Amino acid sequence: MVLGLRGLTQVQGGVETHAAQLYRRLATLGCEIEVLGRTPFVPAGQNNVGDVRVRRLWSPRRPGLEAMIHSLIGVAYAAVTRPDILHIHAIGPSIVAPIARLAGLRTVVTHHGPDYDRDKWGRFARWVLLIGERLGMQYSDARIAISKTIAQVIRDKYGREAELIPNGVEVHAVRAETDYLVEIGVQPRRYVLHVGRLVPEKRQLDLIEAFSRAAIPGWKLVLAGKLADDRYCDEIRAAAASTEGVVLAGYVCGEPLDQLYSHAGAFVLPSSHEGLPIALLEALSYGVPSLASSIAGNLEVGLDPACYFPPGDIHALASRLAQLAREPLDEQAAARRRLWTKKRYDWDRIALQTLSVYARCLGSAPRLTPEPR
After folding, report:
1. What SS3 class is residue 34?
2. Which of 58, 83, 90, 281 supports an S-S bond with 169, CB 3.0-4.6 Å?
3. pTM of the model
């Protein structure tokens, strides 16, 4: 049973993307998977996604309360239905780990990153997330960290060991079609792409400013992400309206997203906070030349040092964008990026590693990581 997700389809977010890839594969390996989704994000009547069962449980659609209330309802549902494993994703929902322990449930927690560092949270929300992290790490039967940095945080702060199982990426064939590009008014290899949630810690405003300063003739900037009705997205709308060449594509998925990745001239991730960024891995899986801020989560991806810039340094990003636009397309370099990404971030291997963690929790396989200190 899986707790901590908003939904499994048509939901933009790294945790949901991780889960969609992971549980589809675990189902093919013989696991019975039931995902507990939140009513605002799971269509009425959606009982399964492929071989994965989906259970809609009520939650309010209000940041700060949504995850907490849904997690309380979810752990109560798990206590009644008695899954072999309750797998909780992210540190916010992990606040219910002690309840799961009291109910006698075997619990695995995946730490996707220190969400309390996100710019959008106030003091109380950050405190709740810190409590969730501590309780999740202390009261779970096993812990998974998606990066070495996160594993070290767990070890240093809580004296617990975590299995290192990174995010993965599904390598698709590069699309030849360009009809979606025509629809939004961009040309192949003549646009900078950013894919992700439009939230302050992703720093899209930095990217818009850097694109403006770079002044790359004939290029456009495409931001693929759902525009919410909040102050930050209003600022993005205003910045885009005042900057020539910025395209707000909205939420994009499926073939249109494949086309965006396939024909991008560059991908940029200027975030101030990341766990292990799936969008960056996806761009690399298409061979796209990529730039990223030099925060721990992005550095762990392992790009060439020249591909990183200091977070918030708009001048450095503008300079790198202008330089990248002048460089000729290198198909061999693109092929090397695709192969490197496929070998290093393979979802099939990640699914087997996760299944091994489940088996150890059930007492049917040896432990590969040390016991908690």
Report:
1. strand
2. 281
3. 0.84
